[in-house]
Amino acid sequence: MTTATTRTHPAVLVLEDGRTFRGRSYGAVGQTLGEAVFSTGMTGYQETLTDPSYHRQVVVMTAPHIGNTGVNDEDPESGRIWVAGYVVRDPARVPSNWRSARTLDDELTAQGVVGISGIDTRALTRHLRERGAMRVGIFSGDALAAEDELLARVQAAPQMSGADLAAEVATTEPYTVPARGARRFTVAAVDLGIKGMTPHRMAERGIEVHVLPATATVEEIYATAPDGVFFSNGPGDPATADHAVALMRGVLERGTPLFGICFGNQILGRALGFGTYKLKYGHRGINQPVKDRATGKVEVTAHNHGFAVDAPLDTVSDTPFGRAEVSHVCLNDNVVEGLRLLDRPAFSVQYHPEAAAGPHDAAYLFDRFVSLMEDQRA
């Protein structure tokens, strides 16, 4: 439970291993629990907050100054803030941007998002890098109590491993994003936690996008008469996403051009028979280097994932749907960042080519999807 306030209160952040940080409340006052993760993006905090993939996560911003440009009504990636909690070092005292409609503090308060400010986010980030992402709680106001009681609350919270969350953030009703200009193709997009910019990027390329709930069936996908099928990003453990995996296998069996990003990449990995695993602290931010192995080009990319596909990097694998290979790899740690089928028109990447926020190095992937649909039509 949270209560809105315009004044700051003493606040404490408690990690599940007992490490604590004391600061001041930021946003709503009360209690929140989730998984502590850090984001290295220096800009784009509004897009981060509204990314459904951050559901049940408490986001630590490594950039020290947050809230400088306030909050506007143009940049959200969904209809609400999804982060479970927010951690910043130095919140802006006064926002300054011509599009700013209100302060970030006010927006967090209005949406009941409990946060903390004034702590050493560099020390917290180093701790998470060394110990790994873990459960955390932020407490302020009436939620404050003895540290042993707060720690018990944190340790009683659910783990991210084993969490099935996509249906909690996805649309419950289908909707359509029309093509800009002449309609060239129709795509059925399975919403596992889709960001608003993703169908927009497809619409820019003449694609009419039918966004379907995570619970959609194969029959509902093909009722849209799609030229291609898209599987979106989303939160939770891909090991729990059995329905999405079965759905993707149904698409692969029909040979329809297929594109997946982030969670969709993990779903493709599972559909092909690969495993998935939880990263120690994940990739989150807009400055991650990824190599496209087909071209040798290195892209600076936007990421938000705590799980990855366990696939061999240097060999072509035989799968139930033909040969597959790892198409992209992270240059920081050799994590699989993309998959490609060699005998069917299907590929995926682990990062976010819609770049909201982030660099536009990976925008060509939407063009690659268009090319698959053109080839299939021809």
The major sheet is characterized as:
11 strands, mixed
| Spatial extent as radius of gyration | 21 Å
How many angstroms separate the termini?
56 Å
The total beta strand count reads: 21
Question: Which features characterize this protein?
Answer:
disordered N terminus; 22% helix; seven-stranded mixed β-barrel; 33% strand; alpha/beta; 378 residues; 21 strands; eleven-stranded mixed beta sheet
Short description:
The protein is of the alpha/beta class.
Describe how the helices and strands are arranged.
Blueprint: E1 2-3, E2 10-15, E3 20-27, E4 29-39, H1 45-49, E5 57-61, E6 65-66, E7 85-87, E8 90-91, H2 104-110, E9 114-117, H3 121-131, E10 134-140, H4 147-155, H5 166-169, E11 175-177, E12 185-190, H6 197-203, E13 207-212, H7 218-222, E14 228-231, H8 242-254, E15 258-261, H9 263-271, E16 275-292, E17 298-310, E18 317-319, E19 322-330, E20 336-341, E21 346-349, H10 364-377
Parallel strand pairs: 4-5, 5-7, 6-8, 7-9, 12-13, 12-14, 14-15, 15-21
Antiparallel strand pairs: 1-4, 2-3, 2-10, 3-9, 4-10, 11-13, 16-17, 16-19, 18-19, 19-20, 20-21
Structural overview:
The protein is 22% helix and 33% strand. It is an alpha/beta fold and 378 residues long. The strands form three sheets. Strands 11, 12, 13, 14, 15, 16, 17, 18, 19, 20 and 21 form an eleven-stranded mixed β-sheet that branches. It has a seven-stranded mixed β-barrel with strand order 2-3-9-7-5-4-10. A two-stranded parallel sheet has the order 6-8. A hairpin with a 5-residue loop joins strand 19 (322-330) and strand 20 (336-341). Helix 8 (242-254) crosses helix 9 (263-271). The chain is globular, with a radius of gyration of 21 Å.
